[in-house]
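User: I'm putting together notes for a lab meeting next week and I want to include a structural view of one of the chains we've been expressing. I don't have a solved structure, so I'd like a prediction I can at least talk through. The sequence is below, exactly as it appears in our construct file.
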Amino acid sequence: MKEELPGSDAPGLAWLEERVRHEIDLFRHNYQPWVPPAPERDGQPVYDVVIVGGGLYGLGLAWGLMRAKVTNILVLDQAEAGLEGPWMTFARMPTLRTAKQLTGIEFGIPSLSLRAYWEAKFGPQSWERLSLTPRSEWMTYLEWFRGLLDIPVQNETEVLSIDGDAESVWLSVRHGHEDSVLFARRVVVATGLIGSGGKHIPDGLTENLSRDVWAHAADEIDFAPLAGKDVGVLGAGASAFDNAITAAEQGAHRAVLFCRRPELPWLSAKKGLENAGFMRHFADFPDLYRWRFVKGITETPIPPPRHSVERLIELDNAEMRFGAPWQDTRMDGDKVVVATPQGEDRFDFVIFGTGFDMNIDKRVELQAIAPHALRWRDRFTPPEGEESDVLLNQPYLGPGGEFQEHTPGRCPVLSRVVMLGSAASLSTGPLFGGLNGVKFVLERTVDETCRSLMMETLDAFHERFQEGLRAEKPPGVLGSTD
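Assistant: Thanks for the context. Below is the predicted structure for the 482-residue chain, given as structure tokens.
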């Protein structure tokens, strides 16, 4: 993709940053941090909120809390700075698939929007010419957003486990070679698709393969050694297309995309749902409607982007095969043999573009609390013919995305842990809208987190109020005599 250059009409980011500061200052009156400090735990301070994941949702949530003057927060991310989220690792499309008008993390400050950033850096005319946002520039925008707002992010930090009691959450973390424990009143898990379960690979397709001849589409893959090689890709979604295209463009001899269906999906189940009313109020729907909407979405295959299909078709060394599910794989020397109803084929390397699991029981960091979480099967019985074991296993979350206990009193820390991943979709909804749902899920999460912190610290607020009523009269007050 051609690199965008600043236009003569671009005022520059320094100008924009001053405008951001001015807009923030416009709303500064009478807004001070308000959450009373929590007592120390084991001699350590207690954060009000720790956010696990420094990608789009993590940064947006952190800024939303900061705007609400909940400032004793920390964001943790396992990646190095600049590599948070999928954008510079396993995302391989040249542009985002979401409309450039995407908003959601600004929280009332227009100059923090992608459009304001783009117009300041490249000029308004460049914005008008832009069709979709280049992936690398999107990541640069997020880095700018984080740096300008001074969002507290601790990179290269792995969360090993999340546990706690009725008073706080304990996070066992590893930073570098050092292990430690952090304490927080609330923890928000914002680790994306992977954080709700992990990479999905159909059963039986890797057991007979050497580990160096296959990868999942969400793995970091070095495509350079695949030049001149035969590459097979399983899947018909966007990531499968992205990987097949990347392999072909990087010089693979063949890149073959296998689709188990006889044709590409064409119906987008989400298209009619991406509106403000649905996104904002989904969490308020009766269980039956939430179930039917999400079941319909998850069981309807998502069409790949049209421009991705066109890109693959244009490549002489790439092809698609329909009605070709992988029935078996095995090694033949250093080749991978793939068996389909159409026969066998041999590849040097295979990639599984088969999506992600929604199963919190697979997450190592949640093992202490997941067994105690209330599930949909505990609260809802689907009508006959509408059953889904996968959805029944999803956590039944509260209005702010917080876990709830299966047995009251058994694991009280659960209500202090919020899920912002695909496992929350059945309860809170907008996450299945991808980037389109960012605004709505973050607003609700900020509101509910602030509400819960207010309720938790109400005694301290009342005591402070009473102290104010007992205050001694200051000198110089008129209208009274001693």
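A couple of points you could mention at the meeting. Residues 438-456 form the longest helix (19 residues). The chain has 14 helices and 19 strands.

User: Perfect, that's what I needed.
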